[in-house]
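Form P-L/3: holo structure prediction, ligand magnesium ion.
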Amino acid sequence: MRWLALIWKSLMRSKRRTLLIVGSLILSVFTVAVLQSLLTTLNAVTNNPNSSNRLVVRHKSGLTQMLPRSYEAYLRQQPEVETVCALQWFGGYYQDPRNFFANFASDETTLFQTFREEFGVAGITEAQIKEYLRDGAGCIVGESLAKKNGWKVGDVVPLTGTIFPINPRLTIRIIYKSPKPSDENVLHFHYKVLEEGVSYMKGLVGSFWVRTHRPEDIPRFIERVDRRYANSAYETLTETENAFNLSFVKMLGNIGAIIQGITAAVVVAILIVTGNTMATAIRERTTEIAVFRAMGFSARRVLLLLLSEGILLVGVGGCLGVLLANLAAGGVRESLGMAMPFFADFAILPDTALVCLAGALAVGLLATFIPAYAATRRPITDGLKAIG
Amino acid sequence: MNTDRFDLGGGTPIITLRDIAKSYWREALEIPVLQGIDLEIPAGAYVALMGPSGSGKTTLLNLIAGIDRPTGGSLEVCGHELNGLDDDQLASWRNLHVGFIFQNYNLVPVLNAFENVELPLLVSGAGRRERRERVERALTLVNLTDKLQNYPRQLSGGQEQRVAIARAIVTDPDLLVADEPTGALDAKNAEEVLGLMERLNTEFGKTIVMVTHDPKAAHHARHQIHLEKGVLDKAVEVNR
Ligand SMILES: Nc1ncnc2c1ncn2[C@@H]1O[C@H](COP(=O)(O)OP(=O)(O)O)[C@@H](O)[C@H]1O
Ligand SMILES: [Mg+2]
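OUTPUT (holo model):
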C-alpha cells in the first residue's frame, strides 16, 4: 500500500459523500468556466485589436436610419482616411428562416482593403477577386458557412430578404478562410444589388466603415465628421468599431455584473458545501486520527494526508468540470455560432480553465485545512475517548 | 516514596516514573488525577495495572505510552526522557518503541487486515518488500494468515483484536501498552488474546503494561499494580 492508495481508500469510505463533493465541484466549476468564458468572448468582441484602425459612421438616430451615399466623397477626402466601405445588414436567410447567418450588402471594391485582417487576404487570389468584381450577382462566403451548407465556388445561393423586399440569387465567387471562426460565418454581396433592387434604397447607405491610416487619427476624425453634419437632415454618429460593437453587447444588459455576481454566489455556495462535508467527514474520523497519531504519525503527516484527500477530491471535480465546460463550448459554437457570430469564437481559454482549477483547489484547501488542522491540534487522548 | 513496595524484580528498568502527577483543570478548579507516582518497571516485565474505575489507570498508561504529558514529575521510557521530546520527536519515538492495543481494536474500517497492520510501517519508511515480510510475520504470529484480505467488518471481535495485536508488534517495539484489551471480548476470545500476549512476553521478551479491571485477565500478567484514587496502592507478584 502506498500513500496514494491510503488516500484513495479513505476517500472511498463514504462514496455518497465523495460523489456529493465531486458532483458539486463539477457543477460549480462548469458554471463558472462557462460564464467567465462568455464574458471573455464578449470582451473580445469589443476589444478586437484588428479593428483599432476602423470607424463606423452611421445615422445618429439609429441603425434603421440611412445616410446619403454622397457623404462618402467627403469621408474619402479626409487626410486620415485610407478607404471607405458602405455596408448594410441584409438579414436574408437561405431556404429556412431558422437557417440564420450574417449577410451584408457591401462595396465590393473596398471590402477587402477595409477588412483585410478578417478576410485572410493572403488566401484569396487576384483572379478570384476579379471574378467577384466582374459578376454583379456574385457573393463571397466564409469557409465554415460554406461547409455547413455544402456550398462550392460557382454554386447559386438564393437569399430570401426579411428586411428588404428582394430575394437575390447570388453566385459564390470566393470562399475565404479567416483567422477567427466568427468571421467565417458571413456572406457579402454587391451593394448595387440592394440599391438597384430596392427603390427606396437608391442613394442611401446603412453605414460607412472607414479605415484610417493610424489609430491616433481617430479622435480628430470623429470630431470633424460629426461636427460637419450636425444639424443637417442626416446627422452622423461616428465611433470606433469596438465602441459600435459594445452598443450591441450593452443591449444584453449589464452582463458583466450579473456574471460576476453569479460567480461569487457559486464560490460561496461551494465553499459552504465542501467545508461542511469535509468538516463532517473529518469529525467522524476523530478516533482514527488519534490512532494514527498514537502509532507514530506526526500531526503534520496526518494534516498532509487529510489535505491530500481534499485536494484530490476537488482536483478531480475541477478537471471534470473544465472538461465538461469545454464540451459545452463546442456545442455552443455548433448551435449558436451562426445566429450570433461572436458565439463562433466561444471557447474555454486556457487562462479561464487554469483560474477555475486554481479556484477549486483553493476551495478544497481551505475547506479541508480548517477542520483538519483542528483535528490534529486535538489531544490524542481526547480522540481515543471520542465515540465513532 | 517507598519504592520497595513496588519491587517488580530486578533488571534494567525500561520504564522509570519519578514523582509523576497529572491534573485536569475545570475552569479554575484543579482536578488531580495522579499524584506522586514513583515506579520502575524492568525490561521484559508483564504488568497488569488494576484499580477501580476512575482511579487513573488509563491516564497513567497514556503517560507511559507518550500520548499524554504529565503536569509534574519526569518519566524515562525505552531510554528516552519523554519531557525532553517535542511532539514530532515523541511521535517517532512512539512509532519506534511502543505498540498500542485498544479495547475497541480501532482498526481502520476501509483497510483490510494486511493494510491495517502495514500502517505503522508507512511512517518508519521501510521498503515495500520489507513491509510485506514484516506484516506477514506479524500476521503469522497471531495466526491470521488466511485473513489478509479481510476487512474489519468481515472479522470476528477476537480476530479484529488479533489483527490489532499484529499491528502493535509489526514495528518490533520494546513496549506494548494495552488498555482493557479483553474488555469487548467473550471469555473464549479473551483467553486467546491473553495467551497471545503472554507469548509475546515470554517468547519475544516484550515488556507489556496492561490496564484491566478483570482479575482473570490480570492473572496472566506476572505483576499486578493497584491504583487507588490516583495513588499507587500495592504491587503483587502473580503466582502462575
Ligand atoms: N480530559 C479529561 N478532563 C478532565 N478529567 C479527566 C479527563 N480525562 C480523565 N479525566 C478524569 O481522570 C480520572 C481518571 O480517569 P481514567 O484514567 O480514565 O480512569 P480509569 O482508566 O482508571 O477508569 C477520572 O476521574 C476522569 O474523570
Ligand atoms: Mg480506563
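COMMENT: Strands of chain B lie at 13-26, 29-42, 46-50, 72-77, 80-81, 98-101, 175-179, 207-211, 223-228, 231-237.
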